[in-house]
Design goal:
The complex is a heterodimer of chains A (about 130) and B (about 220).
Chain A (H helix, E strand, L loop, with lengths): L5 H10 L5 E2 L2 E2 L4 H15 L5 H17 L9 H15 L5 H17 L16
Chain B lengths: L3 E2 L21 H15 L5 H10 L9 H10 L1 H9 L1 H5 L12 E5 L4 E6 L8 H4 L9 H9 L1 H7 L9 E6 L5 E5 L11 H5 L4 H5 L7 H4 L2
Parallel strand pairs in B: 2-5, 3-4
Antiparallel strand pairs in B: 1-4
Classes of the chains: A mainly alpha (about 130), B alpha/beta (about 220).
Chain lengths: ~130, ~220
């Protein structure tokens, strides 16, 4: 389906001036940050939200975090990004908070039963009753 | 420290990393995986498309401190020695987080020996030092073949080594993660650390390549 579109990445960057970037585009401290960015691009490509809407929600998330004492030194940017993504998918009724939690817990169980060095894969049995 | 010589390394199962230790995912990683699973299950995202986006940025992930570490080792013999003795300790000051370079071992390329690192399945791979591994590097085909026939695999990467150069394959474990200290390119006498760092590629620190030569940089 969607190929990686440099134009889409540039739009994301323009809409999110706080996004860590160098002259060529976004940069990431950790792999999960790139994964969170990739999911956001994919949902935007699906038309789930416009960048203006995303930026507004991200701004709210950051403001709320700062009000709660987050120093926002820059390395927290993608934590806010991820929290925004979770809120966006719930608000757009793609999923619910409890579904997110159930999947999170299932991944934790999958990791716990997977010996170090082997790929961690989710099984239906990881979803506890 | 033990090395697996590729002649004697038996790989009859995929990866023998079971040291009685389970895999570990951070709270953030758990949340990211949960989201990914849901989006894929519901058809909002294609796993291949997500991979493709991450792949686009693969060289933009991580602090990439490896090149600076290598450049310092090339110019400072004392640092080179401490890197080869205790890479975790030597690498620590380069990170902006305390956990950079944990359990890291540096293996040095010499005219007699070329080192290649395999296994990038999880925290085995020191992405905090080297940046993200290329996607091909995680493939089972690569991991199993580089152990069996390293010379052929390196040849496919365009790296042809003299027959007398021994190739050593280092298989990361939960306890030990490896980086290769590549050989300093000829024609770089008097170069500064910054200039040298620009020659150090990720692949040269995995062992599937060598450091760029000054000519290749147009310098």
């Amino acid at each position: 389906m969607d190929l990686i579109d440099p134009v889409a990445a540039r739009q994301a960057l323009l809409a999110n001036p706080g996004l860590p970037a160098d002259s060529q585009g976004p940069v990431f401290c950790e792999p999960w940050e790139a994964q969170a960015f990739a999911m956001t691009l994919a949902l935007h490509a699906k038309g789930l939200f416009a960048w203006g809407e995303w930026a507004a929600m991200l701004g709210e998330t950051i403001k709320a975090a700062q009000a709660a004492g987050d120093p926002d030194t820059g390395d927290t940017y993608y934590r806010h990004w991820l929290a925004t993504l979770e809120r966006m998918v719930a608000e757009k009724a793609l999923t619910t908070q409890s579904d997110l939690t159930a999947h999170r817990d299932a991944w934790e169980r999958a990791a716990a039963r997977t010996p170090h060095g082997q790929p961690i894969e989710l099984r239906s049995t990881d979803f506890a009753a | 420290m033990t090395a697996h010589d590729h002649h004697s390394h038996s790989h009859d199962h995929d990866h023998d990393h079971d040291h009685g230790e389970a895999s570990d995912l951070s709270e953030t990683e758990l949340r990211v995986r949960a989201l990914q699973t849901i989006l894929i299950e519901k058809g909002y995202a294609d796993p291949a498309a997500l991979d493709a986006i991450v792949e686009t940025y693969e060289t933009k992930i991580g602090p990439h401190i490896g090149a600076r570490i290598v450049a310092k080792a090339w110019t400072d013999p004392d640092f080179r020695q401490s890197l080869l003795t205790d890479a975790s300790k030597a690498a620590a000051p380069f990170g902006y987080k305390g956990d950079v370079g944990d359990n890291l071992v540096a293996v040095e390329n010499t005219p007699d020996r070329h080192n290649v690192v395999v296994c990038t399945l999880c925290s085995c791979y020191p992405w905090d030092v080297l940046g993200l591994p290329p996607v091909w590097y995680k493939s089972f085909a690569y991991r199993s073949r580089v152990v069996r026939e390293p010379r052929a695999v390196l040849g496919e990467f365009g790296l042809t080594l003299p027959d007398q150069t021994e190739i050593r394959v280092w298989d990361s474990t939960a306890e030990v993660r490896y980086m290769v200290l590549p050989a300093r390119p000829a024609g770089t006498d008097g170069w500064t650390e910054d200039q040298l760092a620009a020659l150090v590629t990720r692949d040269s620190m995995i062992g599937t390549g060598v450091a760029n030569s000054p000519a290749g940089q147009g310098a």
